[in-house]
Specification:
With 140 residues, the protein is an alpha+beta fold. Helices cover 16% and strands 39% of the residues. This is IPIL1 protein.
Length: 140
């Protein structure tokens, strides 16, 4: 969606997170309440991807138990996705990617602090501002 707030155009974008191969997301509600958009933990569950026969590699039944996704260890606390870690990771990724876009050298990028989303402000040479808010979601 988009809107105009004061002197800024604000875009809100939903970014659907998908689990890496061999994993799935499971929503666990807080105390039985039914507000999954605000009141749940997102458990990262290791899934079996093999038939337990043949030479197919499986994340749940690896030949050595040291197999782990480095991305999951970055974005999770224990067995759960950590929204603050995801927001920080995406903010850093955007900063790094911005430096690789020479055609935008005339625009200024500011990444605003946020613990549950990624908020970006782009300012053009005439001081017009665009604000993008990346909201993280998982599919039920």
């Amino acid at each position: 969606s988009w809107s105009v707030l004061e002197d800024r155009i604000v875009y809100q974008l939903v970014v659907c997170l998908r689990p890496p191969p061999g994993y799935s997301f499971r929503l666990e509600l807080y105390g039985g309440t039914h507000l999954p958009e605000r009141c749940c933990n997102i458990r990262v569950v290791l899934e079996c991807t093999c038939s337990r026969t043949g030479d197919m590699f499986c994340f749940l039944h690896p030949s050595d138990n040291s197999q782990s996704s480095p991305l999951l260890s970055t974005l999770c606390t224990g067995s759960y996705l950590d929204v603050e870690d995801i927001a920080c990771w995406v903010q850093n990724l955007v900063r790094s990617a911005w430096e690789c876009l020479p055609q935008w050298h005339r625009w200024q990028l500011r990444v605003l602090p946020s613990s549950h989303s990624c908020r970006l402000v782009l300012t053009d040479p005439s001081q017009v501002q665009l604000c993008a808010v990346l909201i993280f979601a998982v599919q039920q």
